[in-house]
Each structure stands twice: as C-alpha cells, then as structure tokens.
Write a structure and sequence with these properties.
alpha+beta, 5-stranded mixed β-sheet, 3-stranded mixed β-sheet, 12 strands
Length: 678
C-alpha cells in the first residue's frame, strides 16, 4: 500500500515539475541577459512536511543525527500553522545549487521563487565571502557542500552506532562543539587543521642554556611539552622574549581547542587526550560553521539582491503573466511586509538606493560638464522635467511587440541582440511573451533605467547641496558639452547595475550597511531606534538620528549579532587554564548563558576555563531617582572574571586595568542585551 502511494506521489510531483520546465529555462535565460552569472540550479518539488524538514536541516537533505533538527522542525511547523508564515522555497549554496519548491505554490508563486533562486545562486557564485570557504583549494570552483554534509552525517552516525562509543556521549560532545559554532574567525579563509603535534621533543635533549631559561620560568614539564613547540624554542634561543600563548587574541576558538584542548577524565581526575572521534567531530562542526558563516554574514545583501532581481524579472519584464500578476503582487507584498527587521525589505531598499544614487551621480556629473553650469547654479539653470523626459527609454525598446521590431533598427547597436532579432522576425522567438530576448544587457539597463521609474522620479532632484559640491569639486573635467541634450547623450545607463555587481562581489552586511546606510536613506525611509528603559521597564523611541540608527544596525550584524569572544591565554595563571575575553561593545553578556557556555567549553579544554568581561551595574536607588526625574540611570561599568573549574562557577570583580583592553571606544550603551543574544 505504502509503495503504491509512494510511486503515485513521485509521478504526481514529476508531472508538476514538468509544468515548470519552461519557467525554469526562461528564468535562467533572463537572469543571464540581465547580467547575472548563477551556479547551475537543480529544482525539486516537495510537500509541506518535506519543506519543514529541509528548512530544519538548513537546506540539505542529509545532516548528522542530533536533537536540534527536531526542535527546529517543530518550530518551523508551528510557525507555519500559527504564525501565518509560509515557506515558498529554500535554496542552498552549492555548485550546482539545489532549490526546493513547495508543491502547494501557485504557478505565480513558483515563477517568483524560481527568479528569486536564480538571483540567490548568482550571489552564491560571485560574492567573495562565500569564496572564503573554498579559496586556496584545488577545487575552489566547486563547493560540494551537500557531499561534505553527507560525509559528516555518515561519519557521526557510524560513531553513534559503534558499540565501543556511547551514543549519548557523542550527542553531548556535539552539544559542546555547537556552543562555539559562532566563535570562529569568519573573515579568514577556511583552512582544515592538521593533527595536533605532540610535544616538541624530549626536553632533556635541549642544550643547557635553553633548559636553564625554561627552568627560570618555573613551568611544569606538561606545559613545556605541550605549549612550547619547536618554533617557540627557536625564538627563545634568539633572545629573552616574553612568552604569549597565543601571541595575539584568537577568535577561532573552535580551532584553538581543536589544537590544544583535551577532555576531562572523571576516573583519572585530570585532563587526558581527546579520543580520535572527538577531534574528528570538532573538525566537522568547525567546517560546517565556516560553510554557513557567509550566509549569516550576507543575509540582508543576499535576500535584498534576490528580491530586487525577482521584482525586475516578474514585474518589469512581466515574467508573471497577466492572469498571474495579482497573485504575484500579493506574494511580494507579504514577503516585504513581514514584521521585525526584515532582510528582504531592508536589503531591497538598499540595493535600489545604490542603483539610484549611482545613476544620479552619473547624470549630475554629465550636467556639470555643460558650459555655464556649476554645482552652485545647477538646480536653477537646468530644467529637470526635461532631463527626466530625455532619460526616458526610447519607445522602440520600452514597448517591444512583433509589430514594432523594425523600430529597433533606429537604436544603438549595443542595445540590440541582432541574432535574436532576426529569429524574432522569423517567428522563432515569442516577442509577445519574452520581449527581453531581442535586447542585450546594455539594452535592458536602458529599458529599466531607474531614475525615470514612477516611484523614483523625485530621486534625481533630491540631492543635497553638500553632495552637489562634493561631486563638483572632485569631477574630472575630461569633457565639455554645449548643451544639456548633448551631455545626456553620453550618460552611461548601465552605471547603476555595474555598481551593484561590483558591490555584490566584495561586501558583506556590515560593510554594506556601513557604506550605504546614509543620512539620506535613513531619513527618506523613516528609520528610528528604540531602547528598553530601566526606569520605566518599557520600550520607547530613542532616536531618529542617522548616526544612532546606523550604530544600532551595525551592532546587530557584527559577528552575526553575537558576542565576540577570543582566546587571550592558553596558559592562564601558569596552570594550563584557558582565558577568554569578551570584546565589549557596550552590550553586556547574559551572565546566565555565559556560565552554561563555560561548562561546555570546559569539556573541550579539559581544564579550568576563565572569561573576562565587563558588566553594567545599576543601583536600585539610582533607578528610583531616575524614574522620578524622567531620565535613564547612569550604569557603572565593572570588570568581572568568570571561572569554571569543573565543579563550580565563580564570579569575582577584577581591576579595570585587567579589562580595559576589552572595551570598545565608540559604542551604543543603551541596547537591551536580550535583543542581541537570540
């Protein structure tokens, strides 16, 4: 019975998939015509439960056995049932990429997610932050993430099935590793670590002079052999340098404990070497953390990029048919109107701003090259209604039908795909359905020039006098024009898209927001900050100043919005203890979570673990006084040292001098910690 149902279900899904063959093919053709260069994409049709399972698995069909997937599946299912949200698709960063579409989607929904996926796949292929996972390897053009995750799943399943290894211990070890999954150095190229080197050699073989120097340090033989390798010994021979371990704070805590960590043996009552399976799992968890890091670092950029090109294809190029458009409009409205900090909405608005700002600068630079026009008188002597009329795409490319193909002979050659035009004349290209096929990328940029779109028509004249002055003062005077018409004839209509493609390659969310979250953008989009009041216990609007909004958002996206912790000493107190430091940015740690995390790290280090941090204390009396005076209390910052020795967690005050190096110089001190710890 079940086999029959399974076969029927498979054939039904294949029938659904066959209906999408044309949209999949033409979406790829259109994406490439627009200038995108996506990985190949394999599309799959799945049902509601399968979609929830894939989302729980992070977009892949096979993951290692662990309770976290069941928890995420349950969360996703409840969100769909009670939260009103629907997952239309999920696509993974792989080459080829795999996209999974929900079978309950309408054809309009499927077209929308296919165009969305093509843009995602382009971002995966071209953004340099995704390249950090494969850079430096012979197969750097191939991600092979699905194969890697499949190998990890198979290896961990084998460990759990090994009669000599306790399954519960394997799962617990994974829990320990996952407590540090965001504590990597995501700005570095991923490198797999080799096996840990043993002691540098028999200390008795050292020459007398070197041995005497080691003896003066008063270190145990265990520490000498484990910490001071051959490279360090060579440095010591060169001079009496101060010993640091590591020499600089190391953010990749997973790599550090992989190289130098041990496990605590209850029976022996001391740290012993990790089992082979434990180091293997550490390697796997670290590799997966680096693989998924780029997705966390580019959420706003990536989703905004996909939303922008989806809208261009579905709306501007009418990839949604006449009978599908209202359905698509409803689909897009729901995506962009989702509550909270919406990466689709924020990202798309920023990409449109980048395009408009670049196009505006290109036009203004041309106008400032006109005789008798300067940045001082530009707004007075130039008729911008006439400028916009001139910038409007010619009718020949703005409205392409089988009856207007001859008009394309009058437009510049670089705008027209001559081979496709001849095919259209022969009836081999459906121009009614796919008019974009007879244009080149340059022609499509002209056809969709942003400054003349209805929603952006005021952008050109919204430039500030300060921006005009800056453009004018740094303008290369490499051309002069006798008239506005002559100047506008040389406008680069692809400048906006070219700039977008450049940014897509090099930026992540933090650098993207830092550069383009300008005062103009924040003001026009009515962004503001809010904060939690300790005096009233409620949230309130704190500021609409651009600098405050920008600072808040950058805090949220720096280090995935999680606390930045680094290794400062692997031989703390000369006792092989681990010292971590919280790089404090004005948002204090949740000390309850910090205690539990130290317990996890102890299992990976095998010896006591310490954490230096800064906390903000507010006296109850100060809160009461602030409440009466309708203001916020002034917190006092103090240094704290948390320590877990395998039995108890202790917290003690430390002098400010010991934590001063952890404190940032310019931070937002008014953010409720819970907002950043989720």
């Amino acid at each position: 019975m079940s086999n029959t149902n399974s076969n029927a279900d498979r054939f039904r899904k294949q029938a659904i998939a066959s209906d999408l063959e044309e949209p999949v093919t033409e979406a790829r053709n259109l994406a490439e015509k627009l200038g995108l260069e996506p990985y190949p994409v394999k599309y799959w049709i799945i049902d509601y439960d399968e979609m929830n399972e894939l989302i729980a698995y992070g977009g892949f069909q096979s993951r290692y056995p662990h309770w976290r997937w069941g928890m995420q599946y349950d969360k996703q299912q409840k969100q769909g049932q009670y939260g009103g949200g629907k997952a239309f698709e999920i696509v993974n960063n792989d080459n080829p990429a795999h996209a999974f579409l929900q079978e309950s989607n309408t054809i309009a929904d499927q077209k929308a997610v296919i165009t969305h996926v093509e843009a995602h796949s382009d971002f995966f292929a071209k953004n340099e932050w995704f390249g950090l996972f494969t850079s430096g390897r012979a197969d750097d053009d191939q991600v092979n993430a699905a194969a890697m995750l499949e190998r990890h799943a198979r290896a961990i399943d084998e460990y759990m099935s090994d009669p000599d290894i306790d399954r519960a211990e394997v799962e617990k070890w994974i829990d320990h590793c996952l407590s540090l999954e965001d504590n990597i150095d995501q700005h570095q190229v991923f490198k797999r670590r080799l096996d840990v080197d043993g002691p540098a050699g028999d200390l008795e073989e050292l020459d007398d002079d070197l041995a005497e120097k080691l003896d003066k340090l008063g270190l145990s033989d265990e520490i000498k052999g484990e910490v001071f390798d051959e490279e360090w010994l060579e440095k010591l021979e060169e001079g009496d340098e101060a010993v640091t371990f590591p020499e600089e704070p190391q953010k990749d805590i997973l790599a550090f404990v992989r190289e130098h960590g041990k496990r605590y043996d209850d029976e022996a009552g001391r740290a012993v070497e990790m089992e082979e399976w434990q180091r293997d799992i550490l390697d796997m968890m670290r590799a997966e953390a680096y693989y998924f890091a780029a997705q966390k670092m580019t959420k706003v950029m990536n989703e905004g990029w996909a939303a922008y090109w989806e809208s261009t294809m579905m709306t501007d190029e009418v990839f949604a048919g006449d009978d599908e458009f209202m359905n698509y409009a409803d689909h897009m409205a729901k995506v962009l109107a989702s509550g909270g900090l919406n990466p689709y909405s924020l990202g798309m608005e920023l990409w449109e701003y980048v395009e408009n700002r670049t196009n505006r600068q290109e036009v203004i630079e041309q106008l400032l090259r006109v005789d008798d026009v300067s940045w001082r008188n530009l707004m007075d002597v130039v008729d911008f209604d006439d400028v916009l009329a001139t910038l409007k795409p010619p009718e020949a490319i703005g409205n392409i039908t089988p009856d207007t193909l001859d008009a394309l002979e009058e437009v510049p050659d670089e705008w027209v795909d001559r081979e496709a035009l001849e095919a259209a004349r022969a009836g081999d290209v459906d121009v009614e359905k796919y008019p974009w096929k007879v244009l080149t990328t340059e022609g499509l940029a002209r056809r969709h020039y942003s400054l003349v779109k209805r929603q952006h028509r005021g952008f050109l004249t919204r430039v500030s006098q300060n921006d005009l002055e800056q453009i004018g003062r740094y303008l290369f005077d490499d051309a002069r024009y006798a008239s506005v018409e002559e100047a506008l004839a040389d406008v680069d209509f692809a400048a906006g898209w070219d700039r977008m493609f450049d940014i897509r390659e090099s930026h992540n969310d933090v650098t993207f927001l830092d550069e383009f979250l300008t005062t103009e953008f924040i003001t026009e989009n009515n962004y503001f900050t809010y904060e939690h009041s300790q005096a009233t216990g409620q949230f309130h609007v704190a500021s609409d100043a651009a600098a405050d909004v920008k600072k808040k958002l950058l805090l949220q996206f720096t280090n995935f919005g999680k606390p930045t912790i680094a290794v400062y000493d692997g031989n703390y107190n000369n006792a092989n203890e681990l010292l971590l430091g919280h790089q404090y940015n004005g948002v204090m740690l949740d000390l309850g979570q910090a205690r539990e995390t130290l317990k996890r790290i102890f299992e990976l280090w095998g010896r006591p673990v310490n954490l230096l941090t800064i906390v903000k204390d507010v006296d109850e009396h100060d809160i009461e006084v602030a409440r009466r005076r309708n203001r916020e209390p002034e917190p006092e910052e103090r240094g704290k040292l948390l320590r877990y020795d395998g039995t108890d967690v202790t917290i003690e005050d430390v002098p400010w001098e010991e934590v001063d190096h952890l404190s940032a110089d310019d931070v937002d001190y008014d953010t409720k910690p819970d907002e950043w710890l989720a």
